Amino acid sequence: MIVRNLQLVRDRITTACMAAGRQPDSVRLLAVSKTFGVDAVLQAATDGQRSFGENYIAEGVEKITALPSLLPAGVSLEWHCIGPVQSNKTRLVAEHFDWVQSVDRLKIAQRLSEQRPAGLAPLQICIQVNIDGGASKSGVAPADALALAQEVSKLPRLQLRGLMAIPEPAPDFIAACAVHQRVRELFDQINRAGTLPAAMDTLSLGMTADLEAAIQAGSTMVRVGTAIFGGRS
Ligand SMILES: *Cc1c(COP(=O)(O)O)cnc(C)c1O
């Protein structure tokens, strides 16, 4: 089932890229495995999926530490933290994940940088933007995103890669495109300001329900859970 679902999601991404006049390989697929077990991750990995997203730190760390001994030799997975990170969890995150897409405060970024072990590559960072003031209050206000991006990009053990947003569900495709487009414009505006050491290359937008609209707006990474692993209880 997971293998078949993955193919359907890859087909959706390809179709959306073609509709948007984009190359299909310009959008990465992050498989959001939260609430699903090691077996589900293993099935997706066996089918070639390499990047996985987790919301809950303890649950994610459990899978991250269990998987290596179960995978075929030479296969390694890339883990993205996409859920809220409290101060008391930054060490676990810094020690185990490859990416954190949910940075919305400088204090958390500073702790992640300080606690990133020297032997690991810099932690790859997206700043989460609260684009619509939506009920999930996570995310920096759009007006403060550039300042936070500048501060994050100065931290030695972090590498700023881009922006992430979780817009509220939209009533239709046109409305979904419009809200995703606002994140795209903020992304372009920050890059155009030219005050970062390197341009951001990652726009993490789109989930099961709205990945087509996100790709239309320029997403470079869709985060898909339900369409791959099924419904969560
Ligand atoms: C759960 C989650 C997803 C995946 O959502 P689906 O609708 O199941 O595809 C993507 N991004 C974040 C931040 C999530 O928490």
Concise summary:
With about 230 residues, this protein is an alpha/beta fold. It has helices at about 1-20, 40-45, 55-65, 90-95, 105-115, 140-150, 175-195, 210-215, 225-230, and strands at about 30, 50-55, 80, 100-105, 125-130, 160-165, 200-205, 220-225.
Structural overview:
42% of the residues lie in helices and 17% in strands. It contains nine helices and eight strands. The protein has an eight-stranded parallel sheet. Strand 2 (51-54), helix 3 and strand 3 form a beta-alpha-beta unit. Helix 1 (2-19) runs parallel beside helix 8 (211-217), helix 4 (90-96) crosses helix 5 (106-115) and helix 7 (173-193) packs parallel to helix 8 (211-217). The chain is globular. The two termini are 18 Å apart. The mean pLDDT is 97. Bound molecules: pyridoxal-5'-phosphate. Pyridoxal-5'-phosphate is lined by residues 32, 34, 55, 82, 166, 207-209, 223-226.
